[in-house]
Amino acid sequence: MTRIEKTIEVNVPVGTAYNQWTQFEEFPRFMEGIREVRRSDAARLFWAAEIAGERKEWYTRITRQVPDEVIAWESESGTANGTIIFKPITAERTDIQVYMEYDPEDFKEEIGDFLVIVSRRVDGDLKRFKEFIEGRGMETGASRVEIIHSKERPVSPLEDSTDAPEPDQVRFGVSPLDSGRSTYHGSTMT
Fold first, then answer.
1. How many CA atoms lie within 13 A of 10 on its CB side?
2. Domains along the sequence of the chain with CATH
3. Which end of the chain is more exposed for a tag (fewer CB within 10 A), N or C?
């Protein structure tokens, strides 16, 4: 399994950066090769992409989403998972940290050059996200829900979450908040 770790600073408030990242349908605007992302339900996403000249389709499940802090996901096929952490640097600047694991599906993807390409693609995607959100200055929408173990609950704007994961504690889709802590596991809202 290949691990990718990337960080970028964006010149927008943490809420703006986070809110835009929750607009998954907008990903084709700044993610290379992504042709479509569609939300199936609160925690499940359909993806279509062109990878190495071939169209690929897959589903991911959001395993953890805490407004202004973290989004973690895993592919249903088990080939990829990751965590995005949002940390305010100042009131107008945000650090975005990406942690991903990718398991090549076939021989073509196992070739060393392909793995370098994936890492470069993530780098480019982050730079294009930075240009996109800074150029707009505001998000195109927002999903202000909390998802714990793929279960959704609305989050009040007055709720104060002080349990933000530290970057060295979060790796590849698993947050330290997921273990040893009692959490609400309500039913998915429609």
1. 31
2. 2-178 (3.30.530.20)
3. C
Q: What's the rounded Cα separation, in Å, for the pair 174 and 153?
A: 19
**Sequence-distant (≥ 6) Cβ neighbours of residue 126 within 8 angstroms:** 6, 8, 96, 98
| Residues 6 or more apart in contact with residue 166 via CB below 8 angstroms | 176
- pLDDT for 23 beyond 90: yes
- Residue pLDDT, tens place only, 128-163: 999 999 999 999 998 888 888 766 655 555 444 444
Cα(32)–Cα(49) distance, integer angstroms: 9
What is the DSSP secondary structure assignment for residue 140, as one 8-state letter? S
Angle between helices 14-21 and 112-136 (to 10 degrees): 120
**Gap between the Cα atoms of 190 and 184, Å rounded:** 17
Cα gap 150→136, rounded to integer Å: 30
